[in-house]
Amino acid sequence: MSKYLISFPSWAMVATGGELEAAGRESRAVIEEAKRAGVYVFAGGLDESVAPVSVSANGEVTDGGYPDGPVLDGGFAVFELPSREQAVMWASRLAKACRCRQELRVFMFDPAS
Fold first, then answer.
1. Beta strands, E only, 56-99
2. Dihedral Cα 58, 71, 6, 100, nearest 10 deg
3. C-alpha span between 53 and 72 (Å, rounded)
4. Domains of the chain
5. Do 8 and 98 touch, CB atoms closer than 8 A?
6. Does this model's pTM top 0.70?
7. Which domain of life does this protein belong to (predicted)?
8. Which of 32, 35, 48, 68 is the most exposed place for a label (fewest CB within 10 A)?
9. Helix or strand holding residue 32 (H, E)
10. From its phi and psi, is residue 19 left (phi > 0), alpha (psi between -120 and 50) or beta?
C-alpha cells in the first residue's frame, strides 16, 4: 500500500459563510469515513497565523521558508491506499466536500515507515 497526499492551497477555497460551514462539516465527514475504512493516516490545515521558519543543520533559525519555493498553505490529508484509483476516489470526495480541486501526490516508498 502507498501513502497519498491529497491537498489544496488556501486560495482555492472560495466558499464563504454558510457554504464554508457546510464544506467543513462535509470534509470532516469524509475524514471520519476514511478513519472507519482504515485508510486515514492524518489530516489538517496549516496554521497560517504562525509564520514558517527555516532551520539549518547547526540549529540556526531564520524567519521564512525557502525564498524561491511556493507558498505552502491550505489543507492536507494523508491516506494509505491500495491503488491510485482508490486515491483518486478519495481525492474526488474531498474535492466535492471542500468545493475545490484537490492535488494528489504519492509518497515514495520508505521501508521504515
1. 61-63, 75-81
2. 160
3. 12
4. 2-106 (3.30.70.1060)
5. yes
6. yes
7. Bacteria
8. 68
9. helix 17-37
10. alpha
